[in-house]
Amino acid sequence: MFFNVYGDNSVYQFIGLTLVFTGLVLLNEFARRTKYGGIISFIVVPILLTIYFITIYICAGLDQSWAKNNGTYVRMNSWFHYAKLYAADIGSVGFVLIKYKWLIGKKSWFKVYPFTIVAINIMIAVISDFESAIKGYKNMKEKGTRWWLSSEGVWLYGGWWNVLNGIAGIINIFCMTDWWGIYSSKNNDDMLWPDMTWHFILAYDLWNFEYTYCNLTTHSWYCGLALLLAPTFANQFWNKGGWIQNRANTLSIWCMYAQIFPEFLDNSIFSVVPSLYKGYENKLVKINEKPIEAEPSGQGLIAFLSIVANVCVISTIIKRWIERKRNPYTHSIFDDCEDYIEAYKRIDNGETEDNLENEAHYKLI
User: Fold this and answer.
1) N or C: which end of the chain has fewer CB within 10 A?
2) How does pLDDT run across 277-304, given as a tens digit for each residue?
3) What is the number of other CB atoms lying within 10 angstroms of the CB of residue 60?
């Protein structure tokens, strides 16, 4: 219903999904388990890539053909891709500082940083969602079609689903609770946010999948499925409480890869076209090629699920706020949930001594 993976390349498309998922899980493990892994992944590599990006744009400005025909320059030139890459990477760097207690990472006031950077990342996507809705509305009014052409030559189909999902994204920001409840794990492998339980993760994943499906349509098989599954999988099976760190790390790694190798996503046997592009079951969407028909039912369905999930989670938070008479943004609100309890067991003992309220509660459980 959501993707055209029934044609001649379907085997390769599922192989691609498996490879991306596995690669992200493994690279996240490399980045999180050692100090050198984090430094290489989120400081050294991004510096080298920044030099590469600047070189491409300078050479393109000098009319050098290799740069003007470079996939990064042609297919990944929108403000969103660069904003997302550097916002995610800045998030990962901040999380490294917190878990190792380096520089400002040891300051108590810096514990609100994860909420701040995640909120910024969500708002970047929300703005992009609203942008698509506005352009779709304007084109419908002026040209009788909701299709609009992005700067990267991809036709997007803007509508009410973007608005609904944008609202869901704003709600999702306030589904993050206990903003200062950030800790290091006992072995310093992870930055933990115990109160970020499955409630938020589910609401976030539905919202973000809809975002990618509407706005990164030709990439959403990978950045909407594999990229979202990787951190959730790690959090579920061996890294409880570390979801937000997993998410930032895998997002940073994916953005770097996609920025350098867009052909893998757009012009290879691994490329996947969403069902939105009706009639493209066995062909790719070429740059600037306008689809004849649209099938936006998938966009509408996921937008509905996204808003419902986020409304349910924020309603649960408000209900617990009233019942417990406890501010959910300065205190834990899900500390009776299994996710929270398992994550709390992983916190460094020295940090639990500074959190007497939660420690007392945990002893009673």
Assistant:
1) N
2) 988 776 777 888 888 889 999 999 999 9
3) 19
